[in-house]
Structure formats: C-alpha cells, structure tokens
Write a structure and sequence with these properties.
- The chain has about 300 residues and is mainly alpha-helical.
- It has a domain at about 10-225.
- Helix content is about 60%, strand content about 0%.
- The chain is built from 15 helices and no strands.
- The chain has helices spanning about 5-10, 10-40, 45-70, 80-90, 100-110, 130-135, 150, 155, 160-165, 170-185, 190-215, 235-240, 250-255, 270-280, 290-300.
- The longest helix has 28 residues, at about 10-40.
- The termini are far apart.
C-alpha cells in the first residue's frame, strides 16, 4: 500500500487541491443525476432555485471579487471585515484554499500560455482536444503545489488570511451544510433539506466550477482579442455573463490590476457593478481601472490562433 508523507498530506495547498478534485469532479455529476431523478414527475420548487442562485452568487462573487480581483491582483482596497468576508465566501466556492488558489492564479499570469502555465490549452504536443481537456479540468489531476512563499508571500503575512486558508475544510462544510439547513428550515421537511443540499450545494458547485474552468479553457481559445496581452486570452460574451464578468479575459490579461473587466458599456460585468455599489457605502475604495490612453496604447492586431485554423 502506498503511503503519503505526513508533511505532504497535511499541507493546506495539497489538501485543498485534492478536495477540489473529489468534490468538483466526482460528486457534483452524481448530484446532478440525483436531482434529475428527484425532479422526474414532480419538478423542482422555487426554494431549490433560490438556494442554487443565492449560493451561486455569494460564492461566485467571493471568487471574482475576493480571490481574484482583491487577493490576487489588489485591484481595490477594503476594510478588514470586508476582507474577511470575501475570504470566507471565496473559500465556500470550494475551489481550493485561499493561498493555493491565488498562487496558482499568479503563476498562470506569470507564464500565461507558455511553459509552466498550470492550465493552458496552448502548451504541449498533445492533440487540441487533449489540451482543451487539460486546461479545463485535467490539470487538477496533475496537482502541483506552487511555491507559496514566492507567489503569496504578501498574503501569508496577514494572520486573518492564514486562518481563513487553514480553515478551508470548515468553509467547505458550511458551503454544503448551509443550503441544506435553509432548505430544511424553510420547507419544514427532510426532503427540503436534501434538495437544498443537492441544488444549493453540489449541483451549484458543478455548474460554478465548470464556468470558472471555462475561463481557463474557453477564454483562451474562442472570443475577441482587442488588446495585446502577449498570450491567447480572449473576451467571451457567454462566459462574461455566466462568470460574473470574468469572461472578459483578454481585457483582464491586458490590465491585470483593473477592478473592472468589462471595459465597455455593453460588456456586462456583475462583479464590477457590485464593486461600484460597495464603494458607495464604504465597503471598497481605490478601485483601479486603466485610463483611456493606456487602453489605446494596448490595442493591437492579434496573431492567428492555432485553434481557429
């Protein structure tokens, strides 16, 4: 029997990454089958839909505004209590502990679509399909812990964030248990608790994770490239909406520290809209956006993409 060293198995990054694979890849598809079976002949109620959408928005915005725009790129400032809230909500998305998530993302930006990019569909000699699958979710099965002392040294100096990252398993339990509890209390039935767990927990994780993974895969293959970002990042309208603004990926790679990803009026960016609202009530400040001159300088024609040929 193969054993894993204690030092390896107990590191938050390794534990968090392995938990992603278990919950995100294995369990949610089974939950989707379960809700389809339960809905056969009886449909699903508004409570199930409300729990799904509510948890999708809370956890999704925890990733987009918290893990991504705040912790990874420092695109705005916020009070301590907001920082803690964003860290917890992002952790409840079950995409890995805070330090691991940010380290992987910063490594992606450093090597975007080049060797050492954790999830690029443009690296390697395999077929296009295999590279796509790798960029979407295959990379999770090749878990490598980024050098956290290199990529998240700044975050590791914050005791609040150390605690949030260390307690990742707790946030996963809350993420799964909260919709079950609400479903049971509101409906007054055990079936309500079960469907709340399935719809607001596992099925929500299934959809939210595939949308997030699509930023890594779809948004590096299909879409518009108005800016010279020196990689294959693209703006994809569908992912832009579903991922709460993250799908304007070429914009983001051209201006990584911008708190706004949808840079034109028609590029719907739900995360930016919430950030603007937060700034009006003191929950966020110093929102960074690129100037018109900087955007003009970044405009460039793009090379032909091998996937489009």
């Amino acid at each position: 029997m193969t054993t894993i060293s204690t030092s390896d198995s107990l590191t938050p990054s390794k534990r968090g990454a392995r938990l992603i694979v278990l919950i995100s890849v294995v369990l949610p598809p089974l939950a989707l089958v379960a809700v389809m079976w339960l809905a056969w002949g009886r449909g699903f109620g508004m409570l199930d839909l409300a729990l799904f959408l509510g948890m999708y928005l809370i956890c999704g915005l925890g990733i987009t505004i918290g893990f991504h725009r705040y912790f990874s790129h420092k695109s705005f400032d916020c009070p301590r209590w907001v920082k803690i809230m964003l860290g917890v909500f992002g952790s409840m998305a079950v995409q890995g502990d805070l330090f691991w998530w940010v380290a992987v993302h910063r490594k992606h930006h450093q090597h975007s679509d080049h060797e050492h990019d954790p999830h690029s569909p443009h690296v390697g000699s395999e077929s296009r399909i295999k590279r796509f699958v790798h960029s979407h979710l295959g990379w999770l099965f090749r878990i490598e812990s980024p050098d956290t002392t290199r990529y998240v040294r700044d975050l590791m100096k914050d005791p609040d964030l150390c605690t949030i990252s260390r307690l990742f398993p707790l946030w996963v339990v809350i993420s799964m248990g909260l919709p079950a509890l609400l479903g049971g209390l509101i409906s007054g039935t055990w079936m309500g608790a079960l469907t709340g767990f399935l719809w607001g927990g596992l099925v929500r994780v299934f959809f939210e994770h595939h949308v997030t993974w699509s930023v890594n895969s779809v948004c590096h293959i299909w879409g518009a490239q108005p800016y010279d970002s020196r990689d294959h990042s693209r703006n994809n309208v569908l992912i832009g909406v579903l991922a709460l603004g993250e799908g304007w990926h070429n914009n983001h790679h051209a201006f990584p520290t911008s708190a706004r990803h949808g840079l034109t009026w028609w590029q719907f960016d739900a995360s930016w809209m919430l950030l603007k609202a937060m700034s009006l009530v003191g929950m966020a400040s110093n929102l960074k956006t690129p100037s018109a001159q900087r955007k003009q300088r970044a405009l460039a024609s793009r090379p032909t993409d091998e996937f489009a040929s």
